[in-house]
Structure formats: C-alpha cells, structure tokens
Write a structure and sequence with these properties.
Helices cover 75% and strands 3% of the residues. By secondary structure, it is mainly alpha-helical. Helix 1 runs antiparallel to helix 2. The longest helix has 26 residues. The chain starts with a helix and ends with a helix.
C-alpha cells in the first residue's frame, strides 16, 4: 500500500467524520480523494462516489425514518425526476462525451476537465451557501404539511439529477433550500427528505448507471465505506463538544480551498 493510498483511507475516515459532524459533505471529499489519491479516472471516481454517498446516507436515514422527518410525497415528486436525470447522465450524456470536448486558442478542454470543473463550481456554491447568512427566516415561510404539486419541483429534481450523475455528488446542499423555498418544507423535513432522496438516487445511479458497465473493485469500496461508517459514529459523538457555527464556517473554507485545488490541478498543472 502506497503512502497516497494510506492518506486516501484516512480520507475515507474523514468523509464519515464530516458527515457525522455536519450531516453533509461526503461527495465533496470523496471525488477528490478517489481521483487524486487513488488515481481513478473521472468515470470511475464519480461512479464510486455515488456508491459511497448512497451507502453513507443510509446510516443517517435510520434516524430520519424513526422520527418521521420526511415528506413522502416530495420523495416521489422530487426523487423520481432526479432518478431520471441521474440515469440520463450516467447512461447517455457521459458515454457520449468525447475525451476532448473542444479547443480554444490551442487550449483543449477534456471530458475530465469539464466534469471536475463543474464539480469544483458546485463546491464553490456549497461554500458560499455555508458562509452566506440569509435574511430569510423559517417563520416567514408558509410551511405546509400537504405539499401541492408544483412544476418547479419536477424541474429542480431533474436538473439536480443530471448534475449529480455527472459529478458523482449527492447535491444535498442544493436540495435542502430548494425543498424549503419551492415546496415550503420545514428545515427538519427538508433535510430528512433530502437525505432519503440522495440515498435513493445515488445508489440507483450507481447500480443502474454503472454497475453493469464497468468492473467494480468491491473489496476497495467496502473498505472505504466501512472506514466512513467508523467516521460517522465518531463524528456523531464529537458533535456534542464542537460549536456548530465554527464547524460550519471552518468546513466552508475547507471546501473553498479544495475547489481551488481542483481548478489548479485540472486547468493549470494538467
């Protein structure tokens, strides 16, 4: 086992730790770890990330089901279009993308650069949402338990599914505010519903979009996920002793630095 692989497995533990402390961020760490430490290509890294994110989300789903902090209707309204989007990405869009997408002034943009560039852009958006304090209060929302059908829910679900499929990310940080603002869910139900959708979509995308079309290193994936589970348990214990606002701010700056690192690796050093 190489030094980079040892760091990568420690990264798996870190993924679970971050998930346990913040409730999100698994895919933000898993894709760079798989790509830069374990040297997987963009298709394999994003596929494995979907499996890791989906399995990790299962752990959090037990509590969600126990306390009923979900909207079953939104899981179907939002989740089914997202499944369509993620399968569209994994089965249609990705296979159609050529290795070299286009040239600009003698500088070519590859499929890998496009996917990781999009992923880094999502990371920048995630760090912004964590650092930006909104003036919107939950008391200002007309929170309803009976969620009416809204075309924006389908559109948002389909769009997020396509993006999730391309970059191998869960998209929870985009899904939660969307469910709150479009569907008028409370914060607890938005988080719970988002977690279920992320779990469902990630595993569906992996098994229907990649499982039958690539050779899977199951021993590696199970080791990685097992270490992530250990991290989740540890994070769930440590969260009692860590200030949540400082943790959120620190993680946001870490995401920002990772996004800049990806941009440099793909567009400067490549």
């Amino acid at each position: 086992m190489s030094f980079l692989e040892i760091i990568g497995y420690l990264g798996a533990l870190l993924i679970g730790l971050v998930m346990g402390l913040t409730g999100s961020g698994g895919s933000i760490l898993s894709v760079p770890i798989l790509a830069y430490l374990f040297k997987y290509d963009e298709k394999t890294a994003t596929a494995y990330s979907l499996f890791i994110v989906g399995m990790t989300a299962i752990v959090g789903s037990w509590r969600i089901f126990k306390y009923g902090e979900i909207s079953t209707r939104l899981i179907w309204y939002f989740g089914l279009p997202a499944i369509v989007g993620i399968l569209l990405s994994r089965r249609v869009i990705l296979p159609m993308l050529p290795e070299e997408l286009f040239h600009v002034f003698g500088y070519y943009v590859s499929r890998r650069m496009f996917i990781f560039g999009l992923f880094a852009a999502m990371m920048l958006l995630a760090s912004y949402t964590m650092l930006h304090k909104t003036d919107l209060k939950l008391s200002d929302l007309d929170v309803k338990e009976d969620i009416p059908f809204h075309p924006l829910i389908l559109t948002e679900g389909l769009f997020l599914g396509v993006v999730m499929g391309l970059v191998g990310a869960g998209g929870g940080f985009l899904m939660v505010p969307a469910l709150m603002l479009i569907a008028n869910l409370s914060i607890k139900k938005a988080v719970g519903t988002s977690l279920i959708i992320v779990c469902m979509n990630s595993l569906t995308g992996f098994f229907l979009g990649d499982f039958f079309f690539m050779e899977i290193d199951w021993s590696f994936l199970f080791r990685f996920v097992l270490l992530s589970f250990v991290g989740i348990i540890l994070g769930g214990y440590l969260v009692k002793f860590i200030d949540s606002e400082r943790l959120k701010k620190g993680f946001a700056y870490f995401i920002l630095s990772m996004a800049l690192f990806i941009f440099v690796m793909e567009f400067v050093i490549h």
